[in-house]
Specification:
Blueprint lengths: L1 E2 L15 H5 L2 E2 L6 E7 L3 E9 H6 L7 E7 L5 E4 L3 E2 L1 E2 L6 E3 L2 E5 L11 E8 L2 E8 L16 E9 L5 E9 L15 E5 L5 E4 L21 E8 L12 E9 L6 E9 L5
Parallel strand pairs: 2-12
Antiparallel strand pairs: 1-3, 3-4, 4-9, 4-10, 5-6, 5-7, 5-11, 8-9, 11-12, 13-14, 14-17, 15-16, 15-18, 18-19
Length: 272
């Protein structure tokens, strides 16, 4: 099952023994949005947090940002606290920070995540902010995943300014696959669809790709590679699409078999 969550900020400061809050006394500014996404399989949860590099930089951040995640129960007992995880940059043309991604053994949270509290600290050098969220009331998307696949996928996105969005796909190599390759310079294909299935944008529109053979990343078992792409949120005529819920298909166009995953996309566009 795959679960995608969009972060909802809470004005209340929740107190617990998580060192993420103790070490970072400043709450993340309200104008710096962060997204939290969760992917679940039979043995683990993978939780990612992503935000806009431009906003973080305004608050004294930059590259080489790290994050720590702490999960606690209703009694404020700490169930999981991660080591610092480095953020990874998105595409060169967008201010998205992709990751960090945390892997959590399900045995550490045997009762699931629904009633848990998630506390993140975002840090670079001496600058540190934290934010807190819980599971209740968050947007949830569920679907089946193929656990026999050579790759494990983690799709997510960040809404940028002026209706733009950065889509990202974090990929982990689960096992090797013989004779697998990319037949062209296209390594990620994206389609945005309405909930009725009508395609409103595809990343291949108006593009030609070089016919070159390359490896499917990541190459080594256990390694992670992040694909990302920016969309301006506009139709062919240049008109921005309205706010709402859309379906996004992300495909790695590999041979002999490609990989496709889907996620729901909550588009935010203010045309005032």
């Amino acid at each position: 099952m795959k679960i995608s969550l969009r972060l909802v900020f809470f004005s209340l400061i929740l107190i617990c023994s998580c060192t993420t809050v103790q070490d970072c006394p400043k709450q993340l500014p309200a104008d710096q949005s962060m997204n939290v996404f969760i992917v679940e399989d039979s043995s683990e949860y993978r939780i990612a947090v992503a935000g806009q590099n431009s906003g973080l930089s305004d608050n004294g951040f930059g590259n080489h940002i790290s994050a720590v995640l702490c999960i606690s129960d209703q009694a404020n007992k700490v169930l999981f606290q991660s080591e610092p995880m480095e953020f990874q940059e998105g595409s060169k043309n967008a201010p998205l920070l992709v990751g960090a991604v945390f892997q959590i053994d399900k045995k550490l949270v045997p009762t699931g995540l629904i009633d848990k509290t998630f506390k993140f600290s975002i840090k670079k050098d001496d600058n540190c902010y934290y934010f807190v969220t819980d599971y209740n009331g968050l947007f949830v998307e569920s679907q089946n995943i193929n656990e026999s696949s050579a790759l494990r996928f983690f799709p997510f996105y960040t809404n940028l300014s002026d209706g733009e969005v950065e889509f990202a796909l974090s990929v982990k190599r689960a096992h090797l696959k013989e004779n697998e390759y990319l037949p062209s310079s296209e390594d990620l294909r994206i389609e945005v669809k309405t909930q009725s299935g009508k395609t409103i944008w595809t990343s291949t529109e108006g593009k030609n790709f070089l016919q070159v053979i390359s490896e499917v990343k990541p190459v080594e078992v256990g390694d992670v590679h992040v694909y990302s792409m920016k969309w301006d949120g506009k139709s062919r005529s240049g008109k921005p699409f309205k706010s709402g819920t859309y379906i996004v298909e992300l495909t790695i166009p590999a041979q002999p078999d490609n990989y496709t995953v889907t996620m729901k996309y909550e588009r935010i566009y203010n045309d005032d």
